[in-house]
Design goal:
215 residues, alpha/beta, Rossmann fold
């Protein structure tokens, strides 16, 4: 099925009966050809999310979880390098879309998940920067860092972002109705299934149980 997130009337049939919804929309932080036809940060990062949530509000059956992919730095707009990245408001609009999702989740009753990746690298190399020019991936930096705070800095491969989202969607024991997490890569091997379980325990184990386990 085809839908255009800029046109709310095309979205209903696509979203009806969806078990989960993943929203990954946006544009470049600085003016490029991707801003053609008004596709600026306000239109691409906020209005599209507003349209999708509006369409969801009209569906008879709501999804269990809705994931929104935004960016690290949404809560650090005055810090370097995010102050530069936000010169045209891309992080401001992403943060506004995050707040919109949380409000919709509380109103419609689904679980909201906000994924804040670092700079995206690796295939399919859609960046308009050196990561695309050099076909940059993370090389030996295959490890994963997850954090529920907006404190991370760095790059992350697209496939690791997708992997984390898939695992969060499959997790049935999230400890919060409105989950926010950041993700970047770090030096080392890709996580094993056991290591992924340990990483996700940040979201699936209560703070009280986590404290008991660590003792």
């Amino acid at each position: 099925m085809y839908a255009d997130a800029r046109k709310v009337d095309t979205l209903g049939s696509v979203l009806e009966d969806a078990k989960h919804v993943v929203i990954s929309v946006g544009t470049t932080a600085f003016p490029t050809i991707k801003w053609k036809d008004g596709n600026d940060p306000y239109a691409a990062c906020y209005c599209t999310v507003e349209n999708i949530l509006d369409a969801l509000s009209r569906t008879e059956r709501k999804p269990a979880k809705v994931v929104l992919v935004t960016s690290i730095g949404c809560e650090r707009l005055n810090d370097f390098p995010f102050k530069i990245l936000n010169l045209y408001g891309v992080l401001t609009e992403k943060r506004r879309s995050e707040l919109l999702l949380v409000e919709a989740a509380n109103t419609m009753g689904f679980t909201s998940v906000i994924c804040r990746p670092g700079r995206l690298v690796g295939t399919p190399f859609t960046n308009f920067d050196l990561a695309k020019l050099l076909n940059k991936d993370q090389g030996e930096n295959k490890g994963i860092i997850l954090d529920t705070r907006d404190v991370l800095v760095g790059d992350v491969e697209r496939r690791d972002v997708a992997d984390s989202i898939g695992r969060v969607l499959m997790a049935e024991d999230l400890q919060t109705r409105n989950l926010i997490y950041s993700i970047t890569n770090k030096p080392g091997e890709a996580p094993s299934e056991y290591e992924w379980g340990r990483l996700l325990s940040l979201f699936t184990v209560s703070p009280q149980d986590m404290a008991t386990t660590r003792r």
